[in-house]
């Protein structure tokens, strides 16, 4: 099965109101060409699950500036003043989640878990409305899995089967998000032949990847 | 000496050979500049690696390598990269020896507030809540007051980052340990009087019987 598609073919998979996971950490390891595609098609009312909302001119922040986002589930918005402005004006719903809890909620969804117990957030507003469970005398919050219609991730090298390798700090949320969405599109820095990524060095196994775009460096 | 440099220098003295350390954004990042060359400290960056090196010079910039503040950095020999789930397994799982963070407020019970001012500033907690809960030792490094207002309080009134997790507070005025009995002033900066530090602190300070001059 040929997973490599053109950016034009991505368009057919985009819908207003969909829930997207987008990889990256402060625009490092973010699939920028896929974000260009979302902007070009002006896909609206998105719910976006991401580590942070990047910067107004870089990363996921561009979708916020372009007013395509209805809700964002994220750990940090401080580097993008537009997110805060839209939140204060009531134009954008922001749900802040501790970073370690956010990634583990995504991991749980991808790993078939019904949730997990974390000490993070005990005694803070994060615990509001959540079940508390005591294990061996220590109190934990029950946090639930979170999944998406589509994950847009960034790989440094992607082979034609869809195996992905990530360079340095670009890995971040990408491999976990690849496990937790119905459709996964990876934007490659470089598309290589099968076996050019040594099997032992594959980080995201090809079975998680539906489509590959990019590869122009 | 610049008060921020004094604080960073004093924090660096808390670190031991072999410690895995996470330095928060801002002043805590400066601590890396003052770590003794006699010890090896492994810096963890919550976006996904251990073995973080100094900020990259212009000719060292790698587009694929940033720290948790999005700044281009270098990695040291023996560094290792991983995903965010592994990064927070390291953090929450007690594999980080020391975390150093700034604070808006900290109080007598070791409560910390550093992630939002309702109605004014809501940057989000990022990884701070996990770091404070998971690290073996939590050091708050900050200027003692903000525009003359006390930040070390009887009780935080801003939304908390975590409850009862702070171990040590290091400011330009002194070093304060959070103990079961309250805040114990252990070191005082050379140019600061006891009266100065007590007047700049809302919380009650217990003065150590072996109060020492702050070294940095």
Automatic annotation (TrEMBL), chain A:
<dbReference type="GO" id="GO:0008410">
    <property type="term" value="F:CoA-transferase activity"/>
</dbReference>
<dbReference type="InterPro" id="IPR037171">
    <property type="entry name" value="NagB/RpiA_transferase-like"/>
</dbReference>
<dbReference type="Pfam" id="PF01144">
    <property type="entry name" value="CoA_trans"/>
</dbReference>
<dbReference type="InterPro" id="IPR004163">
    <property type="entry name" value="CoA_transf_BS"/>
</dbReference>
<comment type="similarity">
    <text>Belongs to the 3-oxoacid CoA-transferase subunit A family.</text>
</comment>
<keyword id="KW-0808">Transferase</keyword>
<dbReference type="InterPro" id="IPR012792">
    <property type="entry name" value="3-oxoacid_CoA-transf_A"/>
</dbReference>
<protein>
    <submittedName>
        <fullName>Butyryl-CoA:acetoacetate CoA-transferase alpha subunit</fullName>
    </submittedName>
</protein>
<dbReference type="InterPro" id="IPR004165">
    <property type="entry name" value="CoA_trans_fam_I"/>
</dbReference>
UniProtKB/TrEMBL annotation, chain B:
<dbReference type="InterPro" id="IPR012791">
    <property type="entry name" value="3-oxoacid_CoA-transf_B"/>
</dbReference>
<dbReference type="Pfam" id="PF01144">
    <property type="entry name" value="CoA_trans"/>
</dbReference>
<keyword id="KW-0808">Transferase</keyword>
<comment type="similarity">
    <text>Belongs to the 3-oxoacid CoA-transferase subunit B family.</text>
</comment>
<dbReference type="GO" id="GO:0008410">
    <property type="term" value="F:CoA-transferase activity"/>
</dbReference>
<dbReference type="InterPro" id="IPR004164">
    <property type="entry name" value="CoA_transf_AS"/>
</dbReference>
<protein>
    <submittedName>
        <fullName>Butyryl-CoA:acetoacetate CoA-transferase beta subunit</fullName>
    </submittedName>
</protein>
<dbReference type="InterPro" id="IPR037171">
    <property type="entry name" value="NagB/RpiA_transferase-like"/>
</dbReference>
<dbReference type="InterPro" id="IPR004165">
    <property type="entry name" value="CoA_trans_fam_I"/>
</dbReference>
